[in-house]
Design a protein that fits this description.
By secondary structure, the protein is an alpha/beta fold. The chain folds into 2 domains: 10-155, NAD(P)-binding Rossmann-like Domain (Rossmann fold, 3-Layer(aba) Sandwich), CATH 3.40.50; 188-415 and 435-478, Dihydrodipicolinate Reductase, domain 2, CATH 3.30.360.10. Helix content is 37%, strand content 19%. The protein is built from 14 helices and 15 strands. It has helices spanning 20-35, 55-70, 76-85, 96-114, 130-139, 162-173, 191-201, 232-257, 266-278, 288-291, 406-409, 417-427, 436-455, 471-478; strands at 10-15, 43-49, 86-90, 119-123, 150-154, 181-183, 215-223, 292-297, 315-320, 332-337, 344-351, 371-377, 381-389, 397-405, 461-463. It has a 9-stranded mixed beta sheet with strand order 14-13-12-11-7-10-9-8-15, with helices on both faces. It has a 6-stranded parallel beta sheet with strand order 3-2-1-4-5-6. The protein is globular and about 80 Å long. 40% of the residues are buried. The structure holds 6-O-phosphono-beta-D-glucopyranose (BG6). 6-O-phosphono-beta-D-glucopyranose binds at residues 156, 222, 224, 243, 345.
Amino acid sequence: MKKQPSMEACLMIIFGATGDLTFRKLIPALYQLEKKKELGNGFGVVAVARKPISLKAYLQKAKERVKTHTGEDFEESVWEDLKERIRYQPLEFSNENDYESLNETLSNLDQKIGARGNRLFYMAASPKYFEEISRHIKKKDLYNEKQGWKRLMVEKPFGRDLISAQKLNQALTKVFQEEEIFRVDHYLMKEMVQDLIMIRAANQIFEPTWNREHIDHVQIISTESEGVGTRGEYYDQAGVLRDMVQNHMLQMLALTAVELPGNLTAKNLREEKNKILQSLIPFKEDSLEEQMVLGQYQGYREEPGVAENTSTETYAAIRVFLNHPRWLGVPFYLKTGKGLKEKAARIVIQYRLPMGSCCLGKTKEIEEPNRLTLNIQPLEGVVLSFNTKQPGTLDTILPVNMDFCQNCLIGMNTPEAYEKLLGDAAKGDQTSFTHWKEVEASWKWTDTLIDWAGKHPEKIKFYEKGSQGPPEAINLVHREPGRKWL
Ligand code: BG6
């Protein structure tokens, strides 16, 4: 049977098409999809931005960025095919006339390429324009529900606190139904994050032990070696709590802790994740210092766009508990930050030590517990650490690893997050996008942390760039017997 392309007939309308996200992620992802023949007949792209440039100039820039991305693998013929699908439309986000001419472009293209009236709107502009753009989409009838479907993809940040997120959601839901909104969290598209569910569901050895009786604690880690780079202005207003914790870190936590629904549908999984996020135990202000360490890398204040005396946090380590029968008393340690020693993300499940002693009648302490490590990046894979006997002895315990390196085996070419998320949204599959209720619960919990950070700038710990982070954060885990950052 002939393989169906994942991107069916539709027009993808990118607002913010000259921005960093479009050139760094969206266009390269479209190029890869074109190369894999995933873009079907009737699929077209309308790149919309404020810059009054020609299509030729736009394509030139887009091509350069794709070339940077693909390096030696760039194929002119693939680019030529993709180029044919792209139009450029200058538009001031507040100008009604501009939306009218955009509408004309869309109708003409519909006729010309056979996009069947399907519309995939992508908000890649600055979040401050999201409400205005969606209002105009409705007012100027940029879709026709009698003819085809409409969907909206929204980039993070989805608001900057609970109130602003609620306001944004109200504005978007005046135009789009929840089933039509695809809130992007690119961590949900990472292979090993998606594998979390499969590993539990498809292996009898893990699911029965995935609970407080057997698990001592969980670590969820995503560190970066780079600083804020050219995003200082945005980042200084956000900090790591808004930029990483409220979304990527809590989503990884939710997927680790979730109850597996009997029927694994997008709806059921998202409902279960929401229950986990609702069960996050809120912090009391006076105990927060014990549970969270915030840091800032030295040199951050000199980065372009960053305020001179800023107390914005670039690092957070947090001890989190859930009010959930499966996880009562089990700490989830979150660690994330910029300007650290390595770029890496992983989830580690540390099991309890076995009860009693071992080794043929001799009393021996077992020192290393079992661990299941999901390496998310740069290498993808699973490592199971367990104890065995040192060959040649009867009572010497030897901790060893079973190591499955996914991208060593299959090659480094697993599809990138943005290829997958465009394909899923075009198919209408919401499994790896966040439901509004999840976003709301995450803000509710994170807002307390953000408020505390704002009130206590003096609590920020400074750390050397390229280090492991502030020593106080190391203590957050190391003060508990048998635990250390992994
Ligand atoms: C983004 C944050 O959502 O995720 C960035 O805004 C961060 O600040 C990035 O660098 C990390 O993503 P990844 O996939 O590189 O780990």
